[in-house]
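Homework help board

Subject: predicted structure for assignment chain

Our instructor gave us this sequence and asked us to write out the predicted structure in token form, then describe one feature. I got the tokens but I'm not sure how to describe them. Can anyone check?
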Amino acid sequence: MVGTHSIARLTLILAGLLGGCSSRGSLVVVTVEATPPLSNVSRVHTKAVVGTISREFDVPVNPPSPTPLIFGIDLPPDLNGTISVHAVCFDANGQIGAGDGSGAIQVGGRSDVTVLIGGTAVDGGTDLTTLDLAASDLASEDLAAEDLAGVDLAGLDFSSPPSDLSGPFVWTPATVTGDFWGVWARPGDVYAVGSAGLIIHSTGDGTWSTPRTSGTTNRLRCVWGDPASGDIYVGGELNTLLHSTDGVTWTQEVLSTPLDTINAIWGSSKSDLYAVGTHVGGEIVHSTGGGVWSTPQGTSPNPTAFFDGVGGSSSSNLFAAGGRVIYRSTGNTNWAVDYTDAATNLNFFWVYAADATNIYVVGDHGIFYSTANGSWSNQLPGTLWESVWASSPTDIFAVGAGGTIKHSTGTAGSWADQNSGVIGLLRSVYGTSASDVYAVGAQNSIVHGHR
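My token output:
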């Protein structure tokens, strides 16, 4: 009944747990996350609550796997409101962590709930006490045959993404005001930045905070965060490079060489950070996380050009792009030209590595792809693209002018249009999974892609 993805995620569909209805009404997809990740999870005991109705059930993990884990709960079509989920993870020796999450039920559709496990600490709450875990709570009526009817579990496809979780992908515009330039996300933590020092935050529930006090009125063009620690870095015009450990208080980092504009930030961790931008040509600077950034590591060969994008798959597999040149570094201070396009009027804008051998760079003439072998091909020539992001080598999103979003399964001919619901220029795209993606841009544009 269960299987693991190529990304070591567990998928299980449980039908009718909150109503005894074997037909599918609404699907709630639960993602169990932990920082640091839990290993060898053998089962997840779960309590789901909608209004006054609650049920407990076990999700077996076979073979034992690390977090993150994903499972689904089918709800009957007459249930609405908020679903709360409490999950306790076990390994062969006992309980290793517990956490909570909640989300609004999308009646007739899919909603997502992220449960954040509180490290490896045992559950200190009362929702799942010894009594709650007793055999009497997992009586036959809770796991009756009709609740796990064969029709609901038959023929599950555990490919990535599994067919049972891959329903129609839709983009939902947010109600926000601003001119947005950058977005970054991890589960339960989404930041968007833009003009006039704008920084706003969402927990992923569809609502956005009032603007945070950034301490600047400069245009902010990019944002990146360390998913492990939650440290957030924001770059912008006039030498602006901000850092926050909580998303509320922001401090200016020290740049050994001023950058007129910081266009992109990326790191393998908060102690291995890169920023690119402009200052008498393009420059790349590095930080080990102490608040001070190095003198330039690389300078564009064209003094009038600039760097717009930087990214990589690890500290030893890095790419930067600007003008019509793509650079590569193995993590030392040397950057070598990896590709130069013949079109003199081409500009590369963004870099994203789906993994070590699937690298994407987008610009005003297409979507360029490489297997990190020094050879690049244009998968979608003749079109302007501002940003690209991938949850895996077979799940890639690109955004650009007029609210355009395209999706690819990883082959040149597979790029397909998606309806964003907005018309403004989309400048940045980022997500936490194949079913949780954000794109932001001009004309008050923030859209959330989900299944």
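Reply (TA_rk): Your tokens look well-formed. For the description, you could write something like this. The two ends are 22 Å apart (CA to CA). That's the kind of observation they're looking for.
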